[in-house]
Predict the 3D structure of the following.
Amino acid sequence: MSDTTTQDAPPASRPQSGPATTPTTPPAAARGGQKDGRGAKRPGQRLGAQVLVECLEQAGVEYIFGLSGGAAIPIFDALVDSKIKLLLVRHEQGATHMADGYARATGKPGVVLVTSGPGATNTVTGLLTAHMDSAPLIVITGQTLQANLGSDAFQEADVTGITYPVVKHSYLLKDGADIPRVVREAFYIAQTGRPGPVLIDVPKDVSQGPCTPREVGALDLPGYRVPGRGASEDIKALAEKLARSRRPVLYVGHGAVISNAGPAVMALAEKLRAPIVNTLLGKGAADETHELHLGMLGMHGTAYANKAVTDCDLILAIGARWDDRITGKLDAFCTDAVKIHIDVDPAEFNKVVRPDLTVLGDAKRVIEELLPLVSRLDTEAWLAQCATWRRRYPLKYARRGGLRAQHVLDRLDALTAGQTIITADVGQHQMWAAQFCRTREGRRWITSGGAGTMGFGFPAAIGAKLARPDEEVWAVVGDGGFQMTFAELATAAVHEVAVRCLVINNNYLGMVRQWQEMFFENRLSGVDLKGNPDFVKLAEAYGVKGLRIRRAGDIDRKLEEARAHLGPVVIVAEVVKEDNVFPMIPAGAPLSHMIIEAPTSKLDKPDGST
Amino acid sequence: MAAPEPAATVAAPGDAATNRGDLHTISLLVSDRPGVLVRVALVFARRGYNIESLVVSPGARGGFSRMTITCSGDPATLSQIIKALGKLVDVVQATDHTEDRAHETEIALVKIASTLDQRTAILQIAEHYSAKVVDYGSESLILRAVGASDKLDTFIELLRPFGIVELVRSGKILMARGLLET
């Protein structure tokens, strides 16, 4: 991080005559046309929108996911002459999730362009989703003329104000001369340190006004620091604590995926002979099929992962944040274990648990620095215990009595052998996919974890497929979430984005139905999705191929048919209506209260929030 | 500072007197960018943390502002708040000075409606606290006192029986002693 305090040139250097607008300018006059109060455009001088698009090109942007509108027209106009490919979406939320899928599949920021007012507010859910899961997004929102700010003009909204809590940073671009600086800072902030979404609000007088961009020198962000390597004394202390452990667990989160720490984590596990568990978003950082990997931990994690965490004597968090889905009842979580936390974000330290040691730094660099300092631990008895748990409490499902989502996902895992990118929506199908579709490497598993945003899965798959066109990309969605963003079938069809969208259709909001069955005496309320469309016909209405799986015997044939299809395809698995995800740790309960199989007695309502 | 001020500068004097012991004082060095005050305020608001006073002023270097915030609440939340403030791109530095040796001061303006026969008693109190009469009218007085916040609390309590009409306090400002950074 540059520590310099070089100041920008003073605003007085703005080349155009007169202020942008004066308070006496009536908004109606300002709305009247191309006039923006900044004086005429000189021959050869570019417009703000053109400079903005050039800056995006220089930043390496391939795709913009967008939906146009009045205040953004100048920017859309500039895109006509750009090599950046514009994907017109059907709803702004879809654009944000596509950009998010693109970002998580590559590590590069995904870019969204929308208009002011409702166009911008429709991105809020996508911003929250990206913010919670540390995904780099650049969201550019058109804004009304600066003279109209705060005046309740048509489609005017305080967009920076509405979005403060869900962005890593944001800009209200008041002077076109700042466009190069703002774009450069936005991309830098979005993808460094703990990544996140950055919003740029662009008033129409800036985008359609003449622009003489101010040259950008070194980045001047004195308040923004990016941790790199860990402090060597911390890493030494970490190695010493590890050396004393006989029952260690490596607890791997999204930070390990983001920093590409996977190979280093695997090398550490092998050198120590320590088992690995990962969070929902940490899937794939380390190969889930490896003998030392116990799969996902937490509320719907594997029984053996949770038993290992319950009994360990040391838990090493690598880019994971002790979420309430992971710890269950906090007072009972790993009470006797040494807790160590490696994170790039110091605000995560001591937020939930109070670790015995914290190491600030990039996960990959910290683990690589740690590797030479550790040696094999005496863990044979511990690994044998984990193996026993794995044998005794395997993930399982019924293969009779109707089609099961788990069966379909188990076969998807077998047929693709992990050589696929899976984007999951939110709900039961997401948990089953997390359990049965084992992820072999980072950036092959994409889902909304922190926010739990229904509607994420399908558009995220479109973004991921565009980002990595040679990969097979599967969206695994439920009938509830799919109906929130299925309008993007048009986007996939028009642009021939060959995603495979597997709809696990149980005609319920299944996860809530499961809670109501287990904890609320099966008093079903607001979960019956009676009125669902025929999803095969729905796909066909968009010119997308539709397939249906009704019986277990059809699974392989239909999945292979979908895999062989060249364009987008929707595969609807008509699964049994009432099935539950197990294992399950009721919200707020200790990990030891895990319910491994369907309970026969009545359960108390959970203490935890959701 | 383009953003609206989100918090009351003055707490009810009675509350201030009883809460003074739990108060924390945080000093922030921030880039002088639009919206920075809102970003800072939201870090407190999201956690239901109460801001007692907030003073924003230009920093020593151009383009930077200094914020001095006093607030009350539990220390664990406060430590998270300071880390969250430090994460804001526009916040260069966030420091809790509660335990530090720092010079602290505040200004209070107190308007008292008073009859002439009360003046002597009021002026004696003012003199004791080195407060200056900045407006001397036939029906009212304005006193200006400068000093540590708890000293101002007692000053105000002593004046209360005479009938305080208006009270404006600047909020606490502080600076680390010696060559330590604030």
In short: Residues 92-106 of chain A form the longest helix (15 residues). The two ends of chain A are 39 Å apart (CA to CA).
